[in-house]
Amino acid sequence: MPDIDIRVTGRAGRITLTRPKALNAMTYDMCMAIDAALRNWREDDAVDLVIMDAEGDKAFCAGGDIADLYATGIKGDFEYGRIFWRDEYRLNALIFEYPKPVVSFLQGFTMGGGVGIGCHGSHRIVGETSKIALPECSIGLIPDVGSTLMLALAPGRLGEYLGTTGHRMGPSDAIFAGFADHYIPIADWAALIEMLEASGNAKIIEKHATTPPESTLEQQQTVIDALFAGESLGDILNTLTRSDDAMANEALTLMGRNSPLSMACTVEALHRLRGPSLTLRKALELEYRYTYRAMEHGDFLEGIRAQIIEKDRNPRWLHADQAVPAVAVSKMLQPLGKNTLTFEETTGMKIGFIGLGNMGNPMAANLAKAGHEVTGFDMADVSVAGLTMAGSGAEAAANADIVITMLPNGKILRAVGDEIIPTMQPGAVWVDCSTVDVDSARAVADQAKEAGILAVDAPVSGGIGGAAAGTLTFMAGGSDTAFAKAAPLFDIMGQKAVHCGDSGAGQAAKICNNMILGVTMIATCEAFALADKLGLDRQKMFDVVSTSSGYSWTMNAYCPAPGVGPESPADNNYQPGFAAELMLKDLRLSQQAAESSDADTPMGQAATALYEQFVESEGGLGMDFSAMLPRFEKRGRG
């Protein structure tokens, strides 16, 4: 085909992009041609390595050819773009996981889709003209093609900086940030390629590599880390606005051109991905959640119109004031169910799910939507879309690869363990997502281990909304092997999973986290009640506290004052997102643990006593735990 030259020369499979006038932008046909060649060469013993390069001096590949995406998208045909991204991302995974060396020569611009084919190989070579960038936020996308993997792994907060500003990295910066491996002057490339073709030996590359110029990003990292350390786009913008550093002003200028929704989702994606469970496939699957929705619900079509089609450089972004609600970010990154990005090797698991209440029901539904075979059981007469219902817990657990439980307390957990462990097959995994006492978690884990079953205690944070949206956080305890087997399911049901340690560590993390949550909510409610009596406007208080040292999750994300901050249960007459009686349960567990471990927790004790009084004597039963605010409003000092 005229846009790409694919051949075998000597011991090398050769892929050369041949669209220099279009900066070698990659079309769908080019993507599929590369995919086919790589799959053929993977099985060909005559091909020892793959070399990717491009014609022209200006660019290796300046991105994907997005004209067709726009043309179909404005007609309401979103499927073409979804297919393009799906197959492109599968190609990115193929390159990253390729069993033979893949050598790429990245002259000039390497951006967007060019990063996906040029920066996932085993040997990424840059020269003096190389400029690598991720400008996707300027057209209403997020950095994709697996680039969030490299951004999440980049030193410090370089990922947030590069992803939200689109900063162009020179060769030294690209090596420092993890997008390239070797600096070789471009004049030497042709001779090196000939040697690679003749020998099929990628090890010779190291002998030709030279020391690049000093990295500017490395010199600036301390400043970048300070400016981009916020947990959300809003936090980062607040820090940048208040800084008098020249770099802050430059960053604000670059970010002012970009889609606020894209930048907010970029920051959130990086925060979700960071951690020991990060893989390229996980990054690509999360990216696809955004790009799948980008035309229909995001800024992509408007970004292309303004930048490429009409070129007025005046996009009409969603959330143009740069105040992006957390719910908007969550909607763009929530699981896709049956449309989840999958890879050829991915197969469905047999899952037993026991406990289909307010939390278990949507969790099990998300697993079924992702293509897993889920058999469910609950003591109540319930049905869940996509599930086959069993007559008992033992029946649901029989022959399952993984059994998940979501149960009310430790006593019931132990009873369920007695029922299901004898029916589970050796090597299966039991993942308990209940919030129970640490002793019960460890007891059933020991019981499972004796039967040859892997056990993970993985209580969750995120509430009913997080269960439905697939944005839960899992705090997991258990062996490395058990956690690794459960990890793919955590990715479907949640946004983050932290392996906290051995059995019981997940429960320990959960009760410590929720003790902080309970104490902090009481303090937040007390402060609002005090502000009322001092005549301080609640909105003014929020504006001050949410951006200063009183910052907390209970203030910024779950504000207990109606009409202030993001929407929360306070705006729905305190109908529970997280019920006060559940907070009381968790606080009691924290104090039980504190007593058994001889820990001094006076604030935890005080919070437990207040929630006991609120739930059992003051009408708090069935209310959200943030309904402490009207309680304090009614009370005086005595």
**N-to-C terminal Cα separation, in Å?**
84 Å
* Overall average residue pLDDT: 94
Helix count equals 28
Major β-sheet strand ordering: 1-2-3-5-7-9
The CATH C-level name of the largest domain is Alpha Beta
The CATH architecture classification of the largest domain is: Alpha-Beta Complex
CATH topology of the largest domain: 2-enoyl-CoA Hydratase, Chain A, domain 1
Low-confidence stretches: none
Structural category is: alpha/beta
Number of domains: 3
Percentage of residues in strands: 5-15%
The count of DSSP E runs of length 2 or more, i.e. the number of strands, is 18
Q: Describe it for me?
A:
- The strands form four sheets. A six-stranded mixed β-sheet has the order 1-2-3-5-7-9, with helices on both faces. A six-stranded parallel β-sheet has the order 12-11-10-13-14-15, with helices on both faces. Strands 4-6-8 form a three-stranded parallel β-sheet.
- Helix 6 (158-165) packs antiparallel against helix 13 (260-273).
- It contains 28 helices and 18 strands.
- The chain has three domains: 4-337, 2-enoyl-CoA Hydratase, Chain A, domain 1, CATH 3.90.226; 347-503, Rossmann fold (3-Layer(aba) Sandwich), CATH 3.40.50.720; 510-633, N-(1-d-carboxylethyl)-l-norvaline Dehydrogenase, domain 2 (Orthogonal Bundle), CATH 1.10.1040.
- The longest helix is centred in the C-terminal third of the chain and has 29 residues, at 505-533.
- 48% of the residues lie in helices and 12% in strands.
- It is globular.
- The chain is of the alpha/beta class and 638 residues long.
